[in-house]
Amino acid sequence: MIPVFKEMTLKAGLFGVDINKCVDPKDEKDPNRKIIPESLGIVPGFVFLGISIINQIFMKLTILQQLEYNAALLSICFMILLGFSDDVLDLRWRYKLILPLIASFPLVFVYSGATNIVFPKFISNIIGFKTLELGILFKIYISLLAIFCTNSINILAGINGLEVGQSLVIAGTIILYNIIEMLDEKEQKIFENIFSLSIILPFFLCSLALFIFNKFPSKVFIGDTYCYFAGMTFACVGILGHFSKTLLFFFIPQILNFLYSFPQLIGIFPCPRHRLAKFDPKTKKLIGKKENMNLLNLFLIIFGPKREQDICNIIILFQVFCNFTALFIRLSLFKL
């Protein structure tokens, strides 16, 4: 569907310029200036929703489980709509914080899991208690998690394949985590793992197809549509799969990027729309800019100028390292 839809988005005027491959994006005479179809994240979003709706035919769900499943699809559908609207209308940042909050409400209302924190044994032996009940604070945490996930993918971006690449690593880690959990769990927990897999597997495969077209050199741009779609999918899987706290372990690069970007995001330092690196037309490499505070520029400053595909691979490998380390720590702490 992607080759078909990219022609449709071009005709509709939804396209962008691959900034990292030309000196002046506005100079139409620049031989390296390329027009790329935009907002192709809508395609995996459509396919994912269609598969997930049909998938309910084959799942034996109770009424409560059916409510949770449809609440997840409702929240994801809302964010796909928001992302596509952002691509078309260029929404302001405040809407990108408020609307994900609204999108999280179906998840909050149907959530039926525990609202406490369970400490590992070695910590509970020190503090004297095993669990800490949060109550309504946990519901607030769910909403904040949804807001963070939907925006964290979007701010660690700017080069071909990075957004989809990091999402594939996170999704792959979630799949692996659920499979490991299924090997030694009770029946109810196994259903929660299957529930998570029923959502994350279609997402992973749809994203893999999109990555083929979005990797360097990109044939399509994914737009904010995919970033919001991916973030809310992760939030739904973590919340309704009852491992929302563990989910944050898989977002370590995104958390680091957010903390590093925070002074610029809140306006302490000037924040341009595209916090990209500088393209050197002579070497065809990207050079880090200190004034653009994100992991992309920070890694380029640390490792020196790199080709676009090389710096993308470095960040994705960093994501892999962080996720496998987090997975090992999580599974080890659980047994201590």
Attribute tags:
336 residues, mainly alpha, two-stranded antiparallel sheet, two-stranded antiparallel ribbon, 14 helices, 6 strands, 65% helix, globular
Structural class: mainly alpha
Q: How are helices and strands ordered from N to C? A: HEEHHHHEHEHHHHHHEEHH
Write out the strand line-up for the largest beta sheet, numbering strands in chain order.
1-2
Regions with pLDDT < 50 over 5+ consecutive residues?
Answer: none
- Shape designation: globular
Question: How far is the N terminus from the C terminus?
Answer: 48 Å
| Rg, Cα atoms, Å | 20 Å
Average pLDDT score: 90
Q: In total, how many domains does the architecture comprise?
A: 1
Instruction: Give the strand tally.
Output: 6
The portion of residues forming beta strands comes to 5-15%
Helix run count: 14
Helix content: 55-70%
Characterize the main sheet. 2 strands, antiparallel
